[in-house]
Amino acid sequence: MNKKQSVFNWQLFLGLVLVLTGGVFMADLFLPFNLMRFFWPLLIILLGLTFIVGMLFAGRSGSGLAIPGTVITTLGALLFVQNTFHLWITWTYSWALLISAVGLGLLIMNIYHKHVNLRRAGGLVIGIGLTLFVVFGMFFEVILNLSGTGLYSGIFLGVGLVLLGLFVVFSRALFSRAGKAQAGPMPATDGVTVEAEVVEPVEGLNEDLGEDLEPGEVLIEGEEFSRLTFKSVGEVFLTQGDSCSLEIKGNPDLIGKIKTNLQDGELSIVYDVKITDWSDLLILGSPKLQYDVTMKTVDAVKIGGAGNLEAGHLEAGKLSLVHSGLGKLQISDLHCQDLTVELGGLGEILLKGAVQSQTVDLSGAGRYDAEGLESRTARVSLSGAGSANVWVEETLEADVSGAGSIRYKGNANVTQSSSGVGDVKPIQER
Fold first, then answer.
1. Rg (Cα) of the chain, in Å, rounded?
2. Which residues contact 361 (CB under 8 A, 6 or more apart)?
3. How many CB atoms lie within 10 A of CB 111?
4. C-alpha torsion angle, residues 422, 423, 428, 429 (rounded to 10)
5. Does some domain include residue 27?
6. d(CA 114, CA 87)
7. Which domain, by its residues, includes 96?
8. Residue 2 domain flag
9. b/e string for 143-167 if b means 16 or more Cβ within 10 A?
10. Which residues are CB-contacts of 341 (< 8 A; sequence separation ≥ 6)?
11. Inside any domain, residue 184
12. Could you read off the pLDDT tens digit of each residue along the chain, which spans 430 residues?
């Protein structure tokens, strides 16, 4: 028996907000005092809170709503303070707090995603905003004395100094790195010595799946494809077998919104999002969507959106992995000749096994963890605030720009170049 779905009704919620706003404006016409003159910024705060509420109902898939929610709410709070105490002149430096609001939104997102780089990026943005607020505040208030000797402006700037001080106190926790699992030896395979590490389960995968799902619907069976593109929600379980197939399990209404296309050896799975039906993305709890994909030959895997993909043993000649979403791509036993990886956004790729060569291009704040993937040669290019861990035995070419970091193990000859605050170091030096 299926469990009841909990659906967040955006139309009802926004309708009530509009009714409340209109009622306040009408009440203002008949009240003996000017209500909206003093409290209109609260309407902006209410708008920001709608994004926060939407995020809470949507969960991980709606975590991105935290950023507009915190920015709009902070804007409303600033306008309320400035309107109440006539501190409009402080806009010369208070705008910097909106930058910190973006960082706060990133930290709230990290509650769901638990990415080290996302947490560090959020802390960095918060620090930049608070620093700009204090620097410009000191310049305009202390040096130029724009607000005169007003008490409220002094308190306003003092609060900024307190927030910056608290940020400094807690900055160590914000920018610390996560620990690693201990590794242990395992028997050699095909002449290549492989170290086994404790494979930590991907968060969200294998949870609440199975008994809560509707019977599967087989959409593709027997037709050949060697490339997979996944831009949907849910969990993908990829296996290599003697034939190709796709089976989707979950709510029939959601399955009906999945668009599949098989063309020129490539299978595409896309969730059909309609801007007029937001509730599609806000279904809570169970049932979830599970995709069981079997491929005879695996040449390329591309994922986007908020979905996750997990695979066990895979063998390939040349393999291309492209990840531009928020989820995780994990392969626990990969064996191929040439591996090409492109990772953008905030996603994570976790690989174990053995390859001859790997070429990795990281952008954004993603995380590439291939410490358990032995390779003879590697070329890693990293831009932004991402991080990469690799295992290389012969030659490693590492190029870092921005605030990213590359960590490596093995006996490789390393050629490195870095710009900005990024660095390249052996893993034992962390």
1. 26
2. 341, 342, 343, 381
3. 12
4. -90
5. no
6. 38
7. 40-175
8. no
9. eeeebeebeebeebbeebeebbeeb
10. 320, 321, 322, 323, 349, 358, 359, 360, 361, 362, 368
11. no
12. 444 444 455 666 667 777 777 777 777 677 666 666 677 888 888 888 888 888 888 777 778 889 999 999 999 999 988 888 888 888 888 999 999 999 999 899 888 888 777 788 888 899 999 999 888 888 887 777 766 555 566 677 777 778 888 888 887 777 765 544 333 433 333 333 333 333 333 343 333 333 444 555 566 766 899 999 999 888 999 999 999 999 999 888 778 888 899 999 999 999 876 544 444 444 434 347 899 999 999 999 999 877 899 999 999 999 999 999 888 999 999 999 999 999 987 889 999 999 999 999 998 788 999 999 999 999 999 987 789 999 999 999 999 987 788 999 999 999 998 876 778 999 875 4
Domain assignment present for residue 73? The answer is yes
User: Residue 361 is which amino acid?
Assistant: D
Structure tokens at 92: 């010369």
Token readout for 356 is: 């001859």
